[in-house]
């Protein structure tokens, strides 16, 4: 047996378990892993020199495919650079399989280079950690490796999906000789059949009875991937039972004639009377985190009498609104489809008329429409100066579909949520709202563009962009990527947050002004580059910017942070009037 045959077999097993994509950060200790995947005919391998960027590229790829993407790096501090992407994948429930090369453990604390304690390095931010043996002479070692890889891939996919770490100690020699055959041996695939949790008839009828006790029912959708079937059943539930469906842009519940999407505006500065008029008796929630503070504050300040959260697993209690009464272990789509079918049949038998419950839905929809008008007035008023917000609204209005929208953290995702997008545009929206850091936003978009032929448009601020420039360093940038850079020369969000905005140290210690443009970065990466500083110019540039091209494109929008701030202050003053209506 060649000295590293089990590593060659590992690549074959990954392929047979349905994995197709690998991201490699180059290194010497990881050479056996790299060669095994690079020489495998059914694995697509991308190379990213910066480990932090590589992690987020893999994250973006897995966001699109919902299938585990393998991430390979060498030993030592390189492994720690994967941590930001790993924790984002963990809280966003994105499947990553991390293979970290390591020195044999007996060399730890022996002043040997690139040697740290990598076992369980990611702690509780992975679903599980495996540590493979460094010696393969005994058949049990090869059996253990095969069994562990089977288990790791299955665990990566299972509900809820997430990252899994396999640490791989490797001895020299790392490279096969010229006459050494490098072919996989037969491997054993262990399939784990999927199963859906089911409720007992008693539990299900108990939920239906509880539903019947309440008239003011509301369903709120957190961050969740785009799912046409889910949108269909949500629409049916709202239309049939007069139930408000509340979502945000990261929920992939978009503007139509039913869904409530402007809560961040009309829940600003709400008084008690307005809040009470919108308080649900029964709240249903699905998905992961919610984006805006105003929505979370509303549900905490005016808690529902009963709160159901539908999630596939019951290992953790997610009580973000501090009102949870029932965890329902189910996939949201399956639960809501059965709920709709049973309630619809029950209504048919009883001849119920839902008109008497329409007042609750009308209150939410009326406030939502007022908020939508206020946002339009804010960004399309008499002031024609280019601002971050007016630019985002114009770009979202003209964004072609079907396509993918990637939203960087800080202000871009918030501006996009305030504006919203129309359901008819057929967009799929992604944002790293698991941990909500600015690190890796550009890399994630690069990874997304690698996995689809559709246009991928990233809205990103200047601090996040320059922080993650290594995303554009290694691999050829996919030509379907469009980067919109909102450059206001600093961390604009700190000018909007009440605390730091009132401090004399605002500009020096919070906003981080820099004076950079992206021209040189774009030139280095061979990306088409345009800079713009007026709304009129932006309007004229967008058709060509979104057009098909042989190269990726970067559109830099130069705005004045003080003008941005004044626009936002004007909006806040007006939005508070919606939440104080009697």
From TrEMBL:
Domain of life where this protein originates: Bacteria
Catalytic reaction annotation: isochorismate + 2-oxoglutarate + H(+) = 5-enolpyruvoyl-6-hydroxy-2-succinyl-cyclohex-3-ene-1-carboxylate + CO2
Alphabetic keyword roster: Magnesium, Manganese, Menaquinone biosynthesis, Metal-binding, Thiamine pyrophosphate, Transferase
Domain Thiamine pyrophosphate enzyme N-terminal TPP-binding: 10-120
Single Gene Ontology MF annotation: thiamine pyrophosphate binding
Enzyme class: transferase
Its EC number(s): 2.2.1.9
Cofactor comment text: Binds 1 thiamine pyrophosphate per subunit.
Listed pathway(s): Quinol/quinone metabolism; 1,4-dihydroxy-2-naphthoate biosynthesis; 1,4-dihydroxy-2-naphthoate from chorismate: step 2/7; Quinol/quinone metabolism; menaquinone biosynthesis
UniProt cross-references to PANTHER family, sorted A to Z: 2-SUCCINYL-5-ENOLPYRUVYL-6-HYDROXY-3-CYCLOHEXENE-1-CARBOXYLATE SYNTHASE, PROTEIN PHYLLO, CHLOROPLASTIC
Family under the similarity heading: Belongs to the TPP enzyme family. MenD subfamily.
Protein name: 2-succinyl-5-enolpyruvyl-6-hydroxy-3-cyclohexene-1-carboxylate synthase
Organism: Spirosoma agri
Gene: menD
């Amino acid at each position: 047996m060649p000295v590293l045959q089990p590593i060659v077999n590992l690549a074959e097993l990954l392929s047979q378990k349905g994995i197709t994509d690998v991201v490699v950060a180059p290194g010497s200790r990881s050479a056996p892993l790299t060669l095994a995947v690079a020489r495998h005919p059914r694995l697509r391998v991308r190379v990213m020199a910066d480990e932090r960027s590589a992690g987020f590229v893999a994250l973006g790829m897995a966001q699109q495919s919902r299938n585990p993407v393998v991430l390979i790096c060498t030993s030592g501090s390189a492994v720690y650079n994967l941590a930001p992407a790993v924790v984002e994948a963990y809280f966003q429930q994105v499947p990553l399989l991390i293979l970290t090369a390591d020195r044999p453990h007996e060399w730890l604390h022996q002043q040997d280079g690139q040697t740290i304690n990598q076992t369980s390095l990611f702690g509780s931010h992975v679903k599980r950690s495996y540590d493979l043996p460094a010696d393969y002479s005994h058949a049990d070692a090869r059996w253990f490796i095969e069994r562990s890889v089977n288990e790791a891939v299955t665990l990566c996919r299972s509900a809820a999906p997430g990252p899994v770490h396999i640490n791989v100690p490797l001895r020299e020699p790392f490279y096969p000789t010229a006459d050494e055959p490098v072919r996989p041996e037969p491997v054993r695939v262990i399939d784990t059949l999927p199963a859906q949790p089911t409720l007992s008839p008693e539990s299900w009828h108990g939920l239906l009875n509880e539903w019947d006790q309440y008239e003011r029912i509301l369903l709120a959708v957190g961050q969740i991937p785009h799912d046409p079937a889910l949108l269909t059943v949500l629409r049916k539930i709202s239309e049939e039972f007069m139930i408000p469906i509340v979502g945000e842009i990261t929920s992939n519940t978009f503007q139509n004639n039913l869904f409530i999407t402007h809560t961040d505006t009309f829940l600003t500065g709400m008084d008690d009377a307005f809040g009470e008029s919108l308080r649900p008796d029964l709240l249903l929630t699905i998905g992961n985190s919610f984006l805006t503070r105003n929505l979370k504050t509303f549900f905490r300040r005016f808690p529902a009498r009963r709160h159901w959260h539908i999630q596939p697993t019951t290992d953790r209690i997610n009580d973000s609104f501090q009102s949870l009464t029932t965890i329902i272990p189910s996939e949201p789509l399956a639960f809501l489809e059965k709920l709709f079918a049973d309630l619809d049949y029950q209504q048919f038998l009883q001849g119920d008329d839902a008109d008497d419950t329409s007042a609750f839905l009308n209150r939410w929809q009326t406030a939502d429409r007022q908020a939508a008008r206020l946002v339009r007035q804010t960004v399309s008023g008499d002031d024609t100066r280019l601002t971050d917000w007016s630019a985002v609204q114009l770009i979202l209005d003209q964004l072609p579909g079907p396509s993918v929208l990637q939203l960087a953290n800080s202000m871009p995702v918030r501006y996009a949520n305030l504006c919203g997008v129309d359901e008819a545009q057929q967009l799929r929206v992604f944002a790293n709202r698991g941990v909500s850091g600015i690190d890796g936003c550009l890399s994630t978009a690069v990874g997304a563009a690698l996995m689809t032929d559709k246009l991928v448009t990233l809205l990103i601020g200047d601090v996040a962009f320059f922080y993650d420039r290594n995303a554009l360093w290694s691999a050829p940038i996919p030509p379907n990527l469009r980067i919109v850079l909102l450059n206001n020369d600093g961390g604009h969000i700190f000018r909007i947050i009440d605390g730091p905005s009132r401090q004399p140290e605002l500009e020096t210690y919070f906003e981080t002004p820099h004076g950079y443009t992206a021209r040189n970065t774009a030139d280095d990466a061979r990306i088409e580059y345009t800079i713009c500083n007026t709304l009129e110019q932006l309007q004229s540039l967008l058709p060509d910017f979104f057009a098909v091209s042989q190269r990726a494109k970067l559109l830099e929008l130069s705005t004045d942070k003080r003008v941005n701030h004044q626009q936002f202050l004007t909006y806040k003053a007006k939005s508070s009037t919606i939440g104080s209506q009697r």
